[in-house]
Amino acid sequence: MNPTLENTRLLGVGETLRANDYILIDEDFIPVGREHTGHIVNGDEDFDFVRITTIDPLEALADAYGIETEMGREALRIAVDNIQVMDSKQRDYGSNNIAAFGEYGVLVRTWDKVSRLKNLLQNNSEPKNESIEDSWLDLANYAIIGVLCRRNLWK
Question: DSSP secondary-structure letter at 13?
Fold first, then answer.
């Protein structure tokens, strides 16, 4: 969906600017963080900012980050769902189980998942506990956790 005056609202003074908001210049909508006539729009400008009011937030996020392909947008949905799972597990388990062994611990957990998937796929067998899809999703989260560890952000 493209932003129009009908499906947006002007932001008021004091409202928090979001990455998926737009600047309105002469009936043109420019996403925050994008270039306009050689200037990166970052929210400090004296322009009217607007927020889409009728779009799915993930669609707005995809638009704001220039994710155009169907697969890119589907991947975004899966990633957000999966991060919700990671957040839930973080609340249940805390951080110490990962922090105690850092990247190497993440690598071991990743190897366990890869070995499990390899066995299930080679033998064409149905898992008795967690689904094959759950294992793929866990692998994605372990990769994210590995990057968080690498950047010294894991807490």
Answer: T
